[in-house]
Amino acid sequence: MVIVIGIKEVEEPKKQIPIVGSLKGILLVAKHLFEKPATVEYPETKPYIAERFKFRIFLSLDDCVGCTLCEQVCPNLTIHMQPVDRENPRNKRKIYPDVNFGTCTVCRNCEEICPTDAIYLTHEFETSRTRNSFTYSPEELQNPEDEVKR
Ligand code: SF4
Ligand code: SF4
What we know:
By secondary structure, the chain is of the alpha+beta class. It has helices at about 20-35, 70-75, 110-115, 140; strands at about 55-60, 80-85, 95-100, 120, 135.
């Protein structure tokens, strides 16, 4: 038996200049040149923050009664009660919550359960810092972000 294997000659594809594709690309770039940018020059320009966005937790030391409910309800041990030596007739045990923003999932359980509205989340989001710990002491939670040690 004889097997003949034929080799079919294949034509080389014609070299084409991708003029149409290039023109489309140029037109697309030109179109975006005149559109409003989707980004902002942060931090000079503050980005739009949605009304419902919440992050940085604040604490009113005067309103906190040291009930520990926020610590108990936090699902991931982000809050720990700390002793703070300050006079507050509403907080006889002199204990207040701290918050580790490295683990906070912004679930808002602490805010919802607090009987005195002492702990609450705000629109503040610029918490970047160089220090090792993301844990804010009770006093730091009470201060504005630019007064917290970085
Ligand atoms: S927002 Fe949620 S995760 Fe964050 S501290 Fe409060 S209870 Fe804990
Ligand atoms: S912040 Fe509110 S829930 Fe937490 S210990 Fe103080 S009073 Fe209780």
